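Holo prediction. Input below; ligand is 2-acetamido-2-deoxy-beta-D-glucopyranose.
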Amino acid sequence: MRVSSSLGVVAAIAAQIGVVAAQAPQTSDLSAEDITSGTAFGNISRKADENMQQYFGPARGADCTYDNSQQRQEWRTLSPETRKSFTDAVTCLTKLPPTHMTADEAPNYPGVKSRHDEYVATHINYTLNIHDTADFFAWHRTFIHFWEQDLKNLCGYTGWNWALDAQAPQDSPLFLGDEYSLGSNGAYIANRGDTWLAEQDVTYPPGTGGGCVTSGPFTDYTVNLGPLDLPNSNNVNSSFQYNPHCLERDFNPWFTQNYNTYTNVTKTILDNILIEDFQANFQGAGGSDPNNRFGCHGGGHWSTGGSMSDFHSSPADPLFFLHHGMVDHVWTIWQNLDITRRQNVISGTSTLANNLPSAEMTLEDMLPFGFVSEDIKFKDVMDTFGGAFCYRYV
Ligand SMILES: *[C@@H]1O[C@H](CO)[C@@H](O)[C@H](O)[C@H]1NC(C)=O
Ligand SMILES: *[C@@H]1O[C@H](CO)[C@@H](O)[C@H](O)[C@H]1NC(C)=O
Ligand SMILES: *[C@@H]1O[C@H](CO)[C@@H](O)[C@H](O)[C@H]1NC(C)=O
Ligand SMILES: *[C@@H]1O[C@H](CO)[C@@H](O)[C@H](O)[C@H]1NC(C)=O
Ligand SMILES: [Cu+2]
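Structure of the complex:
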């Protein structure tokens, strides 16, 4: 646990520690069977929802209330027409010209060809300042919000609940490959060996695809940027190199079975009372469990393969935004299980694992959004019913 130098954060953490009997439910309150099956996840989602209803109801007197907030649904609960309008909108975003990059800046970003690329480039640019940092959750919440705003007039926002697909993500209805899906798996590449990841010291087996997406909305999709550090791949030689290639995927149940099950996500929410433990275990970075090298966040990325497994350029696959919809959903549940103590707690600096060392972040800090938007104040993105936000997950 890192020692915080920010008074506000120290006070908030002290408030958490001071109350031994936390109001949020614990693993011991729920049966092992309910945790495995997802029933417990439903129970704690409902508890978080009841808390939100109470706290953000009409009595609050604000414009955004529980009742009028936008509801973000899981992908498979959408009508076929809505799914199609969503992927059409995503394709459209990849064809719109950049909106923030100036003519003077363009030579430094040869791979930025579209509005969507501006998202990818911004994530590449700030990768080491937005993961394993105080603002990991808040930065990504805001990032997907802007992307949603860009799609807004065309369709509603959706997420991917990977826990429903943990046994076999390759068989998920999301990736059937028809026109109402999010596109298929990558073409199967046989005879591949295991891959060893030095940083995590983990060896994983090949997935169920490996090549280009073969059917559905993203077959003609061109990825312009990355990969920067994808294993077994011809990586770019400079961060923003123009490197047009197909969208690759390699769904891999090894990751989802080990990191994205209902047991994994439910216990991560229930067993971590302090924000520093919750965010570390969720990312598998510096978490208290030495077997947990990826967490739900890493598991979702690595289980998809292709761009999604590339640390820097992962937003190149639209699935990034659905994965991070689920990430934000989980953070939102964690926050709302104990709203008054958890709404505004943060912990950590603005550099990955504080390497290179940087100052402890405070809620007064500005979060950088590069080519996505103007920078935004940290404290304005902690509450899904506050600032520019007005949404909840159903
Ligand atoms: C959890 O939800 C199920 C329905 O999905 C319900 O039958 C059960 O009583 C709930 N358990 C708790 C502890 O709230
Ligand atoms: C990076 O440079 C090497 C050596 O010139 C080259 O073989 C490789 O194709 C380059 N990678 C990309 C993605 O352009
Ligand atoms: C995730 O849950 C599965 C059971 O669903 C379990 O086998 C695995 O060990 C868990 N992973 C971690 C990192 O705890
Ligand atoms: C990259 O970061 C620098 C420094 O913060 C900023 O000036 C630039 O606009 C950023 N570019 C992108 C694409 O985010
Ligand atoms: Cu990220």
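DSSP finds twelve helices and eleven strands in the chain. That is the main takeaway for now.
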